[in-house]
């Protein structure tokens, strides 16, 4: 009975305070990523580069990890090169101005897996692992290792989709846990914009990874390395992975906003959760 009452009343004060701080910090970090990205669209640039930011920390990273993160030779394929050429006039390259903020903010999300494992939040473990691990692979295993992705406009669409998803999500959780009330419009944004942002984000993720796979036409796939085949496999499962996340969010939307005709912007939700 006591454990049931404890679960019903939510996390303890120390845990609640920690989660509020975590979500508020994450929301602020992703908002800063949006600011840096939009600054590039306005023709401005960040005053610090990713290399200058991370250089002092390099001595603390194990040698094996440093070797793994050594930039790889430029390798891409005709499809990715053509796609980047077509999109570049509309989306500028933003790596130099955003990565120094994106990397730590996204890496901080790894704590969300621990939050689920230790029962601090009620999010399902599979969807949390899929979302967090796929992004960490993109940030550290792909973008940081392959220099030609730094000039890709698909990198820009990817991080914009991420940031525009995460600012409302973390802000929603922070306000819910603080008990100060969540505006109806924020709840609606949190549980509605995924219809557009998830496909854009997941599609951009797959295309960024695809751009690091060498040309495959004309039998050139025969000389692919094991890593190339692994990346091709990951690209292939991006669609079912997106459906897992999509289905989860549709269930959450029905739970929070209600089913049927949906929820008008600014209306009071039928049910609110403090944390997934």
Commentary on this structure:
This protein has 276 residues and is an all-alpha fold. Helix content is 65%, strand content 0%. The protein has 13 helices and no strands. The protein has helices spanning 2-9, 13-41, 50-54, 63-68, 78-87, 95-108, 111-117, 125-143, 153-178, 184-190, 194-210, 226-236, 238-257. α2 packs antiparallel against α6 (95-108), α7 packs antiparallel against α8 and α11 runs antiparallel to α12 (226-236).
Compact overview of the structure:
The protein has helices at residues 2-9, 13-41, 50-54, 63-68, 78-87, 95-108, 111-117, 125-143, 153-178, 184-190, 194-210, 226-236, 238-257. The protein has 276 residues and is mainly alpha-helical.
Specify the helix fraction band.
Answer: 55-70%
Name the average pLDDT: 84
The parts where pLDDT drops under 50 for at least 5 residues are 1-8, 260-276
- What spatial form do the alpha-carbon principal axes imply? globular
Task: Give a quick set of tags describing it.
276 residues; mainly alpha
Describe the secondary structure blueprint for this structure.
Blueprint (H helix, E strand, L loop, with lengths): L1 H8 L3 H29 L8 H5 L8 H6 L9 H10 L7 H14 L2 H7 L7 H19 L9 H26 L5 H7 L3 H17 L15 H11 L1 H20 L19
Helix pairs in contact: 2-6, 2-9, 6-8, 7-8, 9-10, 9-11, 11-12, 11-13
């Amino acid at each position: 009975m006591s454990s049931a009452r404890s679960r019903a009343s939510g996390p303890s004060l120390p845990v609640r305070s920690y989660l509020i701080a975590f979500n508020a910090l994450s929301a602020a970090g992703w908002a800063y990523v949006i600011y840096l990205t939009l600054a590039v669209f306005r023709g401005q640039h960040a005053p610090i580069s990713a290399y200058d930011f991370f250089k002092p920390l390099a001595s603390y990273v194990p040698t094996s990890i440093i070797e793994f993160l050594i930039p790889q030779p430029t390798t891409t394929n005709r499809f990715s090169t053509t796609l980047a050429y077509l999109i570049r006039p509309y989306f500028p390259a933003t790596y130099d101005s955003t990565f120094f903020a994106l990397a730590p903010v996204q890496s901080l999300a790894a704590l969300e897996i621990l939050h689920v494992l230790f029962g601090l939040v009620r999010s399902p473990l599979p969807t949390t692992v899929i979302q967090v691990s796929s992004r960490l692979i993109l940030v550290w295993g792909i973008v940081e290792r392959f220099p030609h992705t730094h000039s890709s406009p698909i990198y820009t669409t990817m991080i914009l989709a991420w940031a525009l998803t995460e600012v409302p999500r973390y802000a929603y959780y922070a306000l819910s846990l603080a008990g100060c009330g969540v505006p109806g419009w924020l709840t609606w944004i949190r549980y509605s914009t995924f219809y557009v942002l998830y496909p854009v984000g997941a599609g951009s993720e797959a295309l960024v990874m695809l751009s690091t796979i060498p040309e495959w036409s004309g039998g050139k796939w025969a000389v692919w390395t094991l890593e190339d085949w692994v990346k091709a496999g990951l690209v292939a499962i991006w669609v079912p992975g997106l459906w897992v996340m999509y289905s989860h969010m549709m269930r959450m939307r029905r739970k929070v906003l209600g089913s049927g005709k949906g929820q008008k912007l600014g209306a009071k939700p039928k049910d609110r959760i403090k944390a997934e």
